[in-house]
Specification:
The protein has 236 residues and is α/β, with parallel strands linked by helices. Helix content is 23%, strand content 25%. A ten-stranded mixed beta sheet has the order 2-1-3-6-4-5-7-10-9-8. Helix 1 links the parallel strand 1 and strand 2. Bound molecules: zinc ion.
């Protein structure tokens, strides 16, 4: 299995775009696809008790379904050369990759995919996203996940990946945009929310940043990102 790709969907049960598109992808020997949080999926909830993308590597001996399931998925992901975790958001973010563990291998993996925007988001906590514990893995975030345009684009990306495998021969470093998440924006009522747009350079309270996942969260306005270049990335 060491050359194969593991595609996982519904790590968050209510983010159905990945499952919807994977149902349309013809199976082949290059990849395996599984649904992660099956219990939350049937209830159309993000999670039941534990957010599965915050508790990896999970706990094999736990009686809780989500803790145990995360441990199962992490040990499965270690058997595959690549893991891709597909998420969906209500934000108008388009499709971008999230590198949850910014090792050189994972960064190059992000560069190899047919996705222009790369977000470096290495939260250094003991527990965290599933892909951080994969041999080589990242997340693909899609938004808004109900948009037909976004669905079509995801389908074309996944057709490409599952049809041709991971290919480093045609990586074009110039055509990628690299961002790094560094904080959250907690805006007051005066914030003109519609002036903030994902990946569009913004100035707010004399601070310049690129917003991410605008309108996705109730307790804050968006994440803040810096745009960085490939050399900065090497010293991350
Ligand atoms: Zn998600």
């Amino acid at each position: 299995m060491k050359n194969k790709i593991l595609i996982i969907t519904q790590t968050h049960g209510n983010e159905i775009i990945g499952t919807e598109i994977m149902n349309k992808i013809r199976p082949n020997k290059r990849f395996r696809w599984i649904i992660v949080n099956k219990e939350a999926s049937t209830k159309n909830k993000r999670f039941i008790k534990f957010d599965m993308n915050r508790i990896a590597p999970g706990n094999e001996g736990s009686k809780n379904y989500e803790q145990k399931r995360v441990a199962e998925i992490v040990s499965l992901a270690k058997k595959y050369k690549y893991t891709i975790d597909i998420h969906g958001t209500s934000a108008s973010s388009g499709i971008f990759t999230i590198v949850t563990n910014p090792t050189m291998q994972n960064i190059l993996f992000a560069f190899s995919l047919p996705i222009k925007n790369i977000v470096i988001w290495g939260r250094k906590k003991t527990k965290g996203p599933i892909t951080r514990f994969a041999s080589c893995g990242l997340e693909v975030e899609c938004g808004p996940q109900t948009s037909q345009k976004v669905k079509n684009k995801l389908r074309s990306i996944l057709k490409d990946i599952t049809g041709q495998g991971i290919n480093y021969n045609q990586v074009n470093f110039e055509e990628k945009n690299i961002y790094k998440v560094y904080g959250k924006l907690l805006a007051n009522k005066k914030t003109k929310k519609n002036t903030l747009k994902d990946f569009r350079k913004t100035m707010f309270n004399k601070e310049t940043f690129y917003p991410l996942l605008c309108g996705q969260y109730k307790d804050f306005t968006c994440y803040k990102m810096d745009k960085i270049n490939f050399v900065d990335l090497l010293s991350y």
